[in-house]
Amino acid sequence: MNSNHKEQRLGKFTASQIYRLMTNPRSGSGLSVGAITYIEEVARDILAYSDEQYEPEFTNIHTDRGHARELAAVANMEMELGLCFSHTGDDQRFFEGREGFWGASPDGVVFDKNGDVAVTLDVKSPTRLNHIKNVLQVKDMHGLKASHKDYYWQKVAQITACNAERGYWVSYNPMIKNLDRVMHYIEIVPPSEDVEAMINKLSMAKSYLDEVVDRFNK
After folding, report:
1. Which end of the chain lies in a sparser environment, N or C, as judged by fewer CB atoms within 10 Å?
2. 90 neighbors 1 (Cβ within 8 angstroms)
3. Residue 55: is its pLDDT beyond 80?
């Protein structure tokens, strides 16, 4: 992730964390304790400098391996689907939702002939055991929502932020002996009711975020 990409994300709600907004409080349908904590973290990034702005990005053998696997999965998906993904790897792009205070960074996108995003891609490189579980449990978007609510809402947010037609979620682990199971993927077209629920939560989150920032700056 380049420095410009990081700066674009600072102070915004991001797809990978949207699931924290989607939990309901013990009573009512407002913001849960977990949601409020996330909103306050976003406020912190607006009100204070981030450590990442002064420290080099941390990498090790595990992050490097994950990056290499992600690129391999993208290449395999291109062959599988006959598509060409843009903005992959270090060239990932942050797409803002139309409201401007949230967005997503897919692992790849496909543009249509008009230059609009038609397809988004999200790649996970889980452990061997978790990949096996993904193959067995995640047969469609309902299985993803049941098994990985965080990944499901991340995918809904990605597709919505990019105004795409659909998206693909991929689980990839090259250590699997059965080559037909090394890569497992599903197609997702978010239900309109889930998109609406997410936008409603984001609206509540933005109102509380503005309140926190205003109170601090008074």
Report:
1. C
2. yes
3. no
Name which of 49, 47, 102, 44 is nearest 218 in CA terms. 47
Q: Which amino acid would we find at residue 112?
A: D
Residue 57 has pLDDT above 80, yes or no: no
Structure tokens at 21: 């907004």
- Using CA atoms in the order 153, 71, 137, 186, what is the torsion angle rounded to 10 degrees? 70
Q: What is the pTM of this model?
A: 0.91
Q: Is residue 124 within 8 Å of 151, Cβ to Cβ?
A: yes
Q: What is the DSSP letter of 189?
A: -
Provide the CATH number for the domain around residue 167.
Answer: 3.90.320.10
Residue closest to 157 by CA, chosen among 109, 97, 200 = 97
Q: How many residues does the chain have?
A: 218
Domain holding 208, by residue range, is 3-217
| Domain count along the chain | 1
